[in-house]
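quick q for whoever's on today - can somebody do inverse folding on this one?? i tried earlier but teh output was garbage lol. tokens:
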């Protein structure tokens, strides 16, 4: 945590929360102080995240291997798919 800091990760989280609320969804408190990553890897992202056309079985396997549950899979997959539809 980074007290008195608003990171890019915080801004992204706030934007996602506000988009959900503005489209009729719930609103929730977002704690601030996340640290931004200092590195990025396209190959790691491609290896550890499902693609937009992966099967449900593969998407579920990837997300559950990261400790997420079925509800997380549905929420993240729905958001991810809608971004590709834009």
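ok took a stab at it. sequence:
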């Amino acid at each position: 945590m980074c007290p008195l800091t608003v990171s890019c990760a915080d801004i992204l989280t706030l934007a996602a929360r506000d988009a959900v609320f503005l489209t009729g969804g719930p609103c929730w408190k977002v704690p601030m102080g996340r640290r931004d990553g200092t590195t990025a890897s396209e190959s790691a992202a491609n290896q550890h995240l499902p693609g937009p056309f992966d099967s449900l079985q593969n998407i579920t396997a990837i997300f559950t291997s990261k400790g997420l549950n079925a509800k997380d899979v549905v929420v993240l997959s729905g958001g991810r798919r809608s971004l590709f539809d834009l």
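fwiw Residues 81-86 have pLDDT under 50 and may be disordered. also Helices lie at 8-22, 42-48, 56-65, 70-85. so keep that in mind when u check it
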